[in-house]
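---------- Forwarded message ----------

FYI, see the GntR family transcriptional regulator record below. Original note from H. follows.
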Amino acid sequence: MVKPTEQLRRRIVADINAGVPGAKLGSERELAERYSTSRSSLRQMLAALEEAGLVHRAIGRSGGIFISHTQVQRSLSDVVGVPAFLANQGYVAGTRVLATKITAPDHIAQTSLRLGPDDFVVEIQRVRLADGSPISLELAQFPAEAFPGLLEKQLGGSLYEILERDYGLVTSHADERIEAVNATPDEASLLAIEPGSALLLITRIAYDQDGAPCEYSRDLFRGDRTRLAVTVQGQGIGVQSPAATATVALQSNAVA
């Protein structure tokens, strides 16, 4: 049974997700009446949401509780699943599994995974959520022979954790390519955006501890909630070049 405090948090977060950054949720008195809760309980919840960066308070005649512009950071230099980087930022990660199957790979997946003409892949399509709001659409493929029974697992969490726990596989590194695309009608419907909206496509080939490719995936992140930040090192004389770092930042709410 969901506790009253968790019910309150979910209701407020749902209203935040339905709004836009900078929009006013209401005054403390208005919100207490809207959510049928005491002002002391509301203050405690708002303090936690403010610490998480979801809202901020303004004092004065035009003050109140406002939706923040804060962002979630995800490092592209680490092979980490969506639930991990969302949880690290205080979001409740969620998943909707759309479809799973064992199928023949297309040419790109076959080449990326170094498969033969008669090999199959396990294909998993999911929508990833942050506090109940869709942020990305995933299509991941794995060599079927290497992961027997994968579709019988609980696929709502991190697939990397399943691969490590049940198959002894550790992802050592990944090659990722990033490009801007537009949402098809089907993609837009799944991500709760308008058709033709900007998406960020991240294509990834992940490798195991022995250097063999173990995953080919295509992740579509909502363009209105995603910002890329990349740090690179110059090549001047005497400068040692460490590995470049990059991050994906997911805006906490859609921009109108």
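H. also flagged this: The chain has two domains: 4-67, 71-251.
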